Amino acid sequence: MFEPEIRDVTPPGGAPIAEVYFGSLARGTATITVWVTTGGTVRELRGAIRQPTVGSYVGYDRAVPTGPASYQAEMFDARGNSLGWTGSRTIELGFTDSWIHNPLDPDGAVRVRLLEGSEESVRRPPQGHLVLPLGRADSIWVGTGRAGVTGVKFAIYTDTVADVERMLAMLGTPDKPLTPIVCFRFGAGQGRLLPSPFYAALPGGTDMQEVSGTADELGVIHEMQATQALPPAPGIFVPLLTYAHLNAYYDSYAAAGSDNQSYATLARRIDIARSA
Length: 276
What we know:
This protein is mostly beta strands. 12% of the residues lie in helices and 40% in strands. It folds into three domains: 1-95, Immunoglobulin-like; 98-228, no CATH class; 241-276, no CATH class.
């Protein structure tokens, strides 16, 4: 019941995006939290955490992987009490290119090519240490389960000046500081030893080596060492459609109303943003 509608809304030549639309919700729903399940990993949909809603909701997954992704929401009333869960729906985009972006700046996503040697060795070390109690011959393991992926090496290739500039901006600039945590999304058949999406910290940044170049083309190898990390501030998101887009597109609220059946229909008009 209350299953979402999932659409592939990837722009031509752009980074993959999935639209998650709940056309109806339980009576009394004031906010919802949307959850995404990919490859056994469950995460909150960025920007869809206790989001206010009136009867319907639309959100966008800008970290959707190439493989199956299932979406489901928990509904809450105005007092924060759970009203239960919606049904779930699954989509599989099946894209073949690999992408990398900063979760706080998805518009800066870069299409990359993984080079030979990338993610050859993947370590998930156990957390803890051995202790040798006084008077005993055998050590005791003190700790918990395994940690996430640690220190995996990547070598990726980009071939344009614009992509190099985006890669440099991805870890932040003096004018736009960002955390050094990125999201890798691997194309079909790539990155099979890693979760996808793979959120990782790049504490050492990236090392760049130019291998070819012309006025507009610039072949660069980017080498980095990544350790699995939680994405920063999952409540923060960059909207695809804003009031600025709507104000520029329509002369009046009446024009917007006559062109769309409902507010929910208008909220899904990302074609307006893309025509700006």
